[in-house]
């Protein structure tokens, strides 16, 4: 039986196409979908990768499900000399390119596309024509929620906000969405936060970490705080160590010039992995309210053991992929992918850390993320301690329990327990999982993270966004690692594309008798 989510529901493609059209707002109200208030979304960087791949398709999906009122508008802004029709065409082509939707309904798309408009502005130019954006926006009598989405490099965030302010477009109620990365270190993030904060109040700034919009990431909160069983065990007494892996099989794609100045630590750890770490280890917040969540997450970030030049070698591994085979396909090395002769940018990073508080002191926490690894796999593994005493003597040795929270693909959870293998022939123990598989229990289509997050901006719900002090605290910890790498000139090891990172990352766990969890 499929479960329903009142905010963003998820249904099969066929059901979705019949559920809504531009004219069916009445129907939508009667259905399980809750439409948001009418809005006007201005997407800066509208012809870029993020907008074409994620934002526009996500909006279309929400449109099909009747959550976007017909008088809402989406206004693309970029340098490209397109007109409105050109932008609509680009949006449709992108949808086909990235979504490959077998249930595509041309009439629904046409109705959605009528909401799309386009303004060509070079926001980097001194004489940027902000007035033309002003003309494309609604007048005061229309009272649409106004949102500016900055899908642009972070160095432009402040200039754009100032341009919006100068031209009178940033009203008291308008909201701004900042796409990651937010800076490249603490200092640049601080400057951005200051600059944007001069124009928009903190409660109107939505800093996106799309991992927070993923179904299973939100489910972490439900797993931990919607069940009574885990909490008594969720601490240093019962947990031996924690592993967080975000492995990707893809390389750096067409993003080489960005990636080579970033690397895995800044691109993935500073945001996605630290958010996962916070949600996995924080104390129970009083509610799902944004401030309550932020308060608990920030405590974790501030309690992370700093990595220094003295400890960096033992506690971090940085590596880069070389030519290999991923999923049966041979792929080039990183240097060819980014088209440079030499680079020390890491495409893989593994870190051993600890949270210095009463709940977690002494529990090793391992995090790793890499590109061109054996397969796409994101998971959190809670490795419990073994039983204090075995009653089975030499006959059988129970293995410690393990909880694997799989974020993608094959979303779900497995709690590995010991049971008796049935049958005669002596007492034999077997490790088997209690399996909470999403695909086996739900028939729903899982909305893309951006579908939820975009509508949360319209709803004014900040819970799944990062607040300023979280971002800055995360950068402070990451800066410590970057500085220590530079100061000690730590080696970048190499790993063959298609394997799960370099040997050094395995050796780091072996030191304490641990092993990275393998795909089961
Ligand atoms: C982005 C990173 O934030 O997340 C990319 O910049 C990475 O490098 C991507 O590929 C991974 O997201 P997902 O949702 O595919 O796990």
Summarize the structure.
Helices cover 35% and strands 19% of the residues. By secondary structure, the protein is of the alpha/beta class. The chain folds into two domains: 8-179, Rossmann fold (3-Layer(aba) Sandwich), CATH 3.40.50.720; 212-510, Dihydrodipicolinate Reductase, domain 2 (2-Layer Sandwich).
Strand adjacency order, main sheet: 16-15-14-13-7-12-11-8-17
* CATH A-level architecture of the largest domain: 2-Layer Sandwich
| CATH topology-level fold name of the largest domain | Dihydrodipicolinate Reductase, domain 2
Overall geometric form: globular
Low-confidence segments, ≥5 residues, pLDDT <50? Answer: 1-31
**Averaged pLDDT, please?**
91
Straight-line distance between termini: 26 Å
Which small molecules are bound? 6-O-phosphono-beta-D-glucopyranose
Q: What's the CATH C level of the largest domain? A: Alpha Beta
Instruction: Give the fraction of residues assigned to helices.
Output: 25-40%
Class by alpha and beta content: alpha/beta
Task: Report the sheet-strand fraction.
Answer: 15-25%
Domain tally: 2
Number of helices: 18
The CATH homology group name of the largest domain = Dihydrodipicolinate Reductase, domain 2
Radius of gyration: 24 Å
| Count of beta strands | 17
Report the major sheet.
9 strands, mixed
Write structural notes for this entry:
The protein is of the alpha/beta class and 520 residues long. It has 2 domains: 172 residues, Rossmann fold, CATH 3.40.50.720; 299 residues, Dihydrodipicolinate Reductase, domain 2 (2-Layer Sandwich), CATH 3.30.360.10. Helices cover 35% and strands 19% of the residues. It is built from 18 helices and 17 strands. The strands form 3 sheets. It has a 9-stranded mixed sheet, with helices on both faces. Helix 3 crosses helix 4, helix 7 packs parallel to helix 8 and helix 11 packs across helix 17. The structure holds 6-O-phosphono-beta-D-glucopyranose.
């Amino acid at each position: 039986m499929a479960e329903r989510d009142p905010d963003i529901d998820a249904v099969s493609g066929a059901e979705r196409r019949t559920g809504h059209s531009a004219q069916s707002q009445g129907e939508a109200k009667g259905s399980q979908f809750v439409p948001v208030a009418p809005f006007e979304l201005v997407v800066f960087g509208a012809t870029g990768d993020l907008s074409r791949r994620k934002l526009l398709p996500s909006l279309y999906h929400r449109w099909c499900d009747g959550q976007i009122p017909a008088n809402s508008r989406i206004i693309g802004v970029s340098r490209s000399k397109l007109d409105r029709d050109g932008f609509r065409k680009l949006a449709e082509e992108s949808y086909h390119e990235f979504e490959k939707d077998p249930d595509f309904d041309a009439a629904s798309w046409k109705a959605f596309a009528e909401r799309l408009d386009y303004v060509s502005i070079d926001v980097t130019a001194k004489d940027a024509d902000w007035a033309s954006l002003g003309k494309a926006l609604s007048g005061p009598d229309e009272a649409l929620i106004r949102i500016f989405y900055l899908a642009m490099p972070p160095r432009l965030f402040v200039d754009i906000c100032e341009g919006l302010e100068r031209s009178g477009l940033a009203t008291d109620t308008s909201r701004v969405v900042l796409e990651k990365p937010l800076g490249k270190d603490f200092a640049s993030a601080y400057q951005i936060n200051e600059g944007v904060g001069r124009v928009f109040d903190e409660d109107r700034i939505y800093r996106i970490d799309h991992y927070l919009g993923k179904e299973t990431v939100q489910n972490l909160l439900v797993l931990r705080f919607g069940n009574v069983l885990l909490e008594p065990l969720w601490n240093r007494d019962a947990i031996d160590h924690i592993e967080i892996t975000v492995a990707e099989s893809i390389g750096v794609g067409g993003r080489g010039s960005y990636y080579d100045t970033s690397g895995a630590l800044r691109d993935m750890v500073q945001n996605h992995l630290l958010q996962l770490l916070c949600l996995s280890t924080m104390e129970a917040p009083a509610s799902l309210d944004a401030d309550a969540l932020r308060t608990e997450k920030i405590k974790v970030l501030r309690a992370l053991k700093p990595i220094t030049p003295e400890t960096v070698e033992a506690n971090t591994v940085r590596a880069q992929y070389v030519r290999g085979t991923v999923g049966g396909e041979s792929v080039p090395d990183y240097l060819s992918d980014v088209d440079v002769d030499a680079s020390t940018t890491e495409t893989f990073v593994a870190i051993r850390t600890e949270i210095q508080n009463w709940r977690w002191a002494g529990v090793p926490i391992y995090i790793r993320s890499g590109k061109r690894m054996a397969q796409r796999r994101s998971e959190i593994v809670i490795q419990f301690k073994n039983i204090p005493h075995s009653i089975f003597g030499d006959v059988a040795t129970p293995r410690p329990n393990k909880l694997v929270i799989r974020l993608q693909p094959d979303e779900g959870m497995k709690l590995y327990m010991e049971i008796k293998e049935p049958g005669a022939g002596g007492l034999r123990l077997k490790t088997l999982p209690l399996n909470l598989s999403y695909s086996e229990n739900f028939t729903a289509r899982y909305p893309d993270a951006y579908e939820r997050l975009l509508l949360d901006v319209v709803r004014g719900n900040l819970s799944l966004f990062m607040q300023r002090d979280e971002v800055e605290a995360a950068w402070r910890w990451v800066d410590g690692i970057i500085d220590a790498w530079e100061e000690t000139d730590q080696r970048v090891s190499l790993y063959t594309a298609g394997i799960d990172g370099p040997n050094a990352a395995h050796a780091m766990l072996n030191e304490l008798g641990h092993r990275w969890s393998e795909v089961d």
